[in-house]
């Protein structure tokens, strides 16, 4: 097949494994918060590649960093280290509770590393009996077999044979549910401070504080999965900063590279010491290209201007959605934090989130779902106010269409 031959959606069904069912449109170009398809039709992007494109598409800082690094050095094995990886690690540790960084390529890999580290730390420190992991119903931690088992959605983990053992699930935002199963056999509790895939549900401060206290009581490691909530998404570099507590291990990916694949696990020196040479690794983890791009992203995102701007944009989104709801009465609530927002559908429209997503695309705006009952918004952290206004006008068209179809 030559480069000149047409590439259509039909080709997907011919050549790709059918685990995805992508939309009919194929985007070919993006700039800022706008994307154009093969027919040069424009879309306003409120999805951000699922909370990834934190600076929008083709941000100059990212393009320059990638281009500059591409002309220097692409890849090294982990027998060697490299300058971008070390610089980024220093910046991440300076900006957080963490003292050590492990690089991976994705959120799932960062979470896999976190879970393996928690188990190894507990084994070395307390013995073999301390190996139980507790996570939460409707949580999501990735698609490796270990992380998908820890994630609290059986639909993603069933049907692949025997699952990794020693994993329990309890109710999110219910401290009694957690306290009832925690013991000195618990090695780790893994939690999203704000559940993303599970419906954009924030953990309450009281609940998260209680989780921290239970972990301390039982000598369990607290792992914060900030793959979706992290890197400026909630208006601080990481969401834990707004909770009043500190995790022992934090995972980060998605927005970390602004669209370039990179993930990281952050932790303390004491805990990190248990991943000795040979215990874990990644061929591409700490890749100079990814680290150089993430450095550039961090230089923009981790500024007062951008982080304060996230909180300001949250209010613009909430106001626009509330105005739409006054007119059409489709949402039960608007929830979330910063630019990780969920419009939860009311009883009349329950189960119809995808209809809003499809109608949105037809109207020229990209949104997401979080389950069947929540429309999710994870746009660029620097999306201009004019794009929000125009995108919301298009989204209102979509809402009107869905309402008409269901009346």
UniProtKB/TrEMBL annotation:
It comes from the Bacteria. Pfam families: Aminotran_3 (PF00202). It is found in: Cytoplasm. Keywords: Amino-acid biosynthesis, Aminotransferase, Arginine biosynthesis, Cytoplasm, Pyridoxal phosphate, Transferase. One of its GO terms (molecular function) is N2-acetyl-L-ornithine:2-oxoglutarate 5-aminotransferase activity. SUPFAM superfamilies: PLP-dependent transferases. Its cofactor is pyridoxal 5'-phosphate. Pyridoxal 5'-phosphate binds at residues 107-108, 140, 225-228, 283. Binds 1 pyridoxal phosphate per subunit. GO terms for cellular component: cytoplasm. Belongs to the class-III pyridoxal-phosphate-dependent aminotransferase family. ArgD subfamily. This is Acetylornithine aminotransferase.
């Amino acid at each position: 097949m030559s480069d000149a031959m047409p590439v259509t959606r039909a080709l997907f069904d011919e050549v790709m494994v059918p685990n995805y069912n992508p939309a009919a449109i194929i985007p070919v170009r993006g700039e800022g918060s706008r994307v154009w398809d093969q027919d040069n039709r424009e879309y306003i992007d409120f999805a951000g590649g699922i909370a990834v494109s934190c600076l929008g598409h083709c941000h100059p800082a990212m393009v320059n960093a990638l281009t500059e690094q591409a002309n220097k050095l692409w890849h090294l094995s982990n027998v060697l280290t490299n300058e971008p990886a070390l610089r980024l690690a220093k910046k991440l540790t300076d900006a957080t509770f963490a003292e050590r960084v492990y690089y991976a390529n994705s959120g799932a890999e960062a979470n896999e590393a976190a879970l393996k580290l928690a188990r190894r730390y507990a084994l070395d420190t307390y013995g073999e009996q301390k190996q139980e992991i507790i996570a939460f119903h409707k949580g999501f931690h990735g698609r490796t077999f270990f992380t998908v088992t820890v994630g609290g959605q059986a639909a993603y983990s069933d049907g692949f044979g025997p699952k990794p053992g020693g994993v329990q699930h309890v109710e999110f935002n219910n401290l009694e549910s957690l306290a009832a199963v925690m013991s000195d056999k618990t090695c780790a509790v893994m939690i999203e401070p704000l559940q993303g895939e599970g419906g954009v549900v924030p953990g309450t401060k009281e609940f998260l504080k209680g989780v921290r206290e239970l972990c301390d009581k039982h000598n369990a490691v607290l792992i914060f999965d900030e793959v979706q909530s992290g890197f400026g998404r909630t208006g601080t570099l990481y969401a834990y900063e707004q909770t009043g507590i500190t995790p022992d291990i934090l995972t980060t990916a998605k927005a970390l590279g602004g669209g370039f694949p990179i993930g990281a696990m952050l932790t303390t020196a004491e805990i990190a010491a248990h991943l000795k040479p040979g215990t874990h690794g990644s061929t591409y983890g700490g890749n100079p290209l990814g680290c150089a791009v993430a450095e550039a992203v961090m230089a923009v995102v981790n500024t007062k201007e951008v982080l304060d701007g996230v909180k300001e944009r949250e209010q613009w989104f909430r106001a626009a959605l509330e105005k739409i709801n006054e007119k059409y009465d489709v949402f039960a609530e608007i929830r979330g934090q910063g630019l990780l927002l969920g419009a939860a559908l009311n009883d009349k429209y329950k189960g119809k989130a995808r209809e809003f997503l499809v109608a949105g695309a037809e109207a020229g705006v990209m949104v997401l779902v979080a389950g069947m009952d929540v429309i999710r918004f994870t746009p660029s952290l620097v999306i201009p106010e004019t794009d929000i206004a125009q995108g919301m006008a298009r989204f209102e068209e979509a809402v009107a269409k869905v309402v008409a179809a269901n009346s």
